[in-house]
Amino acid sequence: xxxxxxxxxxxxxxxxxxxxxxxxxxxxxxxxxxxxxxxxxxxxxxxxxxxxxxxxxxxxxxxxxxxxxxxxxxxxxxxxxxxxxxxxxxxxxxxxxxxxxxxxxxxxxxxxxxxxxxxxxxxxxxxxxxxxxxxxxxxxxxxxxxxxxxxxxxxxxxxxxxxxxxxxxxxxxxxxxxxxxxxxxxxxxxxxxxxxxxxxxxxxxxxxxxxxxxxxxxxxxxxxxxxxxxxxxxxxxxxxxxxxxxxxxxxxxxxxxxxxxxxxxxxxxxxxxxxxxxxxxxxxxxxxxxxxxxxxxxxxxxxxxxxxxxxxxxxxxxxxxxxxxxxxxxxxx
Length: 333
Ligand code: SF4
Ligand code: SF4
Ligand code: SF4
Ligand code: F3S
Hints:
Largest sheet: 4 strands, mixed
CATH architecture: 2-Layer Sandwich
Helix content: 10-25%
Number of helices: 10
Strand content: 15-25%
Structural class: alpha+beta
Number of strands: 16
Bound molecules: iron/sulfur cluster, FE3-S4 cluster
């Protein structure tokens, strides 16, 4: 039975500039330490940063299905526990001092884990490429998880648009896990409940930025209310339109956006001659963020050129984020 959902008065919105994310995982750890260190949550990362292209976390989440097609909720698959990875240790002594092949112990060697394929990317040298893709619950405008729950346990808050799971109502049905095309609700086998990113709502209610944004080492993240015309999220999403949702074709209308990595290195040949085309294939970016990437690429290149020439660029100033306070929510009104 679907819960009737009221449109929220405000929408908490996130933007990550993929040109600045350095894959340090500080946001992952900030979230993990704050929210998911309880029983059954060992493999549960509400925030994770994966390498693109790559398997992602949970493994191959992108093809699990779910979301909406022609306005209809799609069932999707529930990832198996093994897709979240198994614990392993790097075999430092064997690898570094004993000349042993392989990189992990114990055997048998696991086939995946969070960040298993970190930094591998794709393509042939010297034009191989990768970038980092941080992921979290998108606090969608059309949350497939919410519609899929048979127990009305999921709701979208009117005051800020954060999507939450009411744990007293959750009976462990796991329909939310299969319906979310981003694989962001996690089933906790110990509590028999689903858990997911809570948008750090206790912090938001106090006008404090979320832990992932506040701790971002690369100053790559912005959070705010998209109706606040002074917020950087408004400027990037609505005014400049350089921040795009991940896999818009999934139909859930995400409220987490990305500035695509269009300022990366250019192609080169084996003699080191550099060409105009970027190493990261445009088709890969269009597959993730839709056809709008091309226009964003042009606009960012144009605005960057202004800065190079010493001219003013409001867009570049927002993206540079000289004062971290400008990248985070304004006080609640
Ligand atoms: Fe629900 Fe998934 Fe959207 Fe989060 S990303 S609101 S879990 S559908
Ligand atoms: Fe974790 Fe809070 Fe960031 Fe959600 S908003 S991913 S709960 S730190
Ligand atoms: Fe990227 Fe910032 Fe997370 Fe580091 S903390 S991985 S720079 S989003
Ligand atoms: Fe509903 Fe998901 Fe719990 S479908 S009952 S919130 S596991």
